Amino acid sequence: MSWFKRDKPGVDTPSDADRTVRTEGLWVKCDGCKQIIFRQDLEDNRRVCPKCGFHFRIDAREWLDLIFEGEWTEFDSNLASTDPMQFADSKPYKARLAGMQQTLNMKDAILSGQGKIGNHTVNVCSMELKFIGGSMGAVMGEKITRAVERSIENRQPLVIVSATGGARMQEGAVSLMQMAKISSALMRLDEVGVPYISVLTDPTTGGVTASFAMLGDLNIAEPGALIGFAGPRVIEQTIRQKLPEGFQRSEFLLTHGFLDAVVKRHDIRDFLARSFDFFVN
Amino acid sequence: MSNPDITARIHALHPDSAPAPVATESNPAYKKVQLARHPKRPHALDYIERLCTGFTELHGDRAYGDDLAIVGGYAFFDDQPVMVIGQQRGRDTKQKLARNFGMPKPEGYRKAMRLMFMADKFHRPVITFIDTPGAYPGIDAEERGQAEAIAYNLREMARLGVPVIVVVIGEGGSGGALGMGVGNKILMLENSYYSVISPESCAAIIWRDSAKAELAAAALKLTGPDLLERGIIDEIVPEPPGGAQEDHDAAAALLGDSIRKALAELSAMTPKELVDHRYLKFRRMAPFFEG
Ligand SMILES: [Zn+2]
């Protein structure tokens, strides 16, 4: 079954059913420990299972609220795609975009915000997985690049929270080029010595991993997040064998040397503040 | 029932899905895709040996190994020293296996970057030849950081203070192509394609039928004229009648003309101008947004 056939948003997430809340109402079944937990307990605990620590997904706005403790200014909120390829499959891309924009009350799969972390004024971009799988097109490319430029101009640290299936197919090569555009901007940020921390959450794959998500001065991830270049299904189809347990999860990447740390959601804000104290002061 | 892994399917590279090289009249975009994969089409080394003298292959990434899906080394183009790096498919089955069907692994991208840094150090222009269905999607490639290797190249290619000319000679398969594609000039051969996803994988997602690749090829706008119009490439290099596979020498001569012109233009620029030129080129790519 293809997500392109579905009109209902919220199920367009590009990964396994792991992180979805299956039980309606007051109770939720945890996909980590399989226990039934009180929904309010989960919400009060930043959607981390109070029993086993399993990290449920949170959306782009919640991330900014969490990192900035609720106080932040949004930038470039009106940028919207103009459908560079006039793409149409089961439904014209323009119509798909319009539907998403209305349902999720955002113009594309990313929010750009600025606020305080400790003593530091920081620019944070955060992706929305529910918006066409958190995919990257011209708007995401431009918003992140502008955030990088803001960081360069004002010497403000940068954080990008990724949650995405990668480049947006419906914008063709335009979406592919965003990888180079953002990475080039990060070269400039690197040259002026302003820190960038990449936060990888479940899932971060494809063209986003193969560009800015792996280019942080620090690359950190939430526990158990799926992180990779190719998705597990493609790899299975290519090599025609089952993938090992834990393959492409945060802990796997940590073991193989591609992450600086796996950081729990409750510790992220402190981790960022402390890191910027090291980098900046 | 679990959701399909969309991530996986979006980035499917379908290495074994290359269709028979039969030209169809029906869809010009797909016809180009088929020609780009034609078994007799010149590969990177075919161009390098015709365009350059003294090509000396340099191996290895100095960390893990030598990926034969990418070849590189120094050479002389019109007697001018240049660094040439190409994604290389094999011609016969044995070569194809050795070169992993032109699908590089992390050590390939790292070798490519090592050679580009060397070119930068000694002020030599870089010419890259893009021809891959995509970076290899395998366990070992993931373990060694396929994503990181490509990401690193994107950022570091932006920093090079020498002319970088990128030529898409066949398949420009997604991030695996772009990992050697951050240049001052991006040229595309007439019958090549450059796409965010292969037409087969795109068709598998949209129509759940990779056989509908023809439709997907048209929808993706992956041909030279489509990309030129959108400011993603700089020039389309003509091929001999019928396609490059018909006459390798003529194809190389035509490409040589375009490279010569690009080199002349870029050689007049200072290192800083080259970095800025490349930066602005991608910074402006591509303004398809409003608000
Ligand atoms: Zn639990």
What is the gist of this entry?
The complex is a heterodimer of chains A (281) and B (291). By secondary structure, chain A is of the alpha/beta class.
Tally of contiguous helical segments of chain A = 8
CATH superfamily of the largest domain in chain A: 2-enoyl-CoA Hydratase, Chain A, domain 1
Largest beta-sheet characterization of chain B? 8 strands, mixed
Whole-angstrom Rg of chain B: 18 Å
**What general form of chain A does the structure show?**
globular
* Helical residues, percent of chain A: 25-40%
Strand count of chain A: 10
Distance between the termini of chain A: 52 Å
CATH domain fold name of the largest domain in chain A: 2-enoyl-CoA Hydratase, Chain A, domain 1
Poorly predicted ranges of chain B: 1-24
CATH architecture of the largest domain in chain A: Alpha-Beta Complex
The biggest sheet of chain A amounts to: 7 strands, mixed
Classification by helices and strands of chain B: alpha/beta
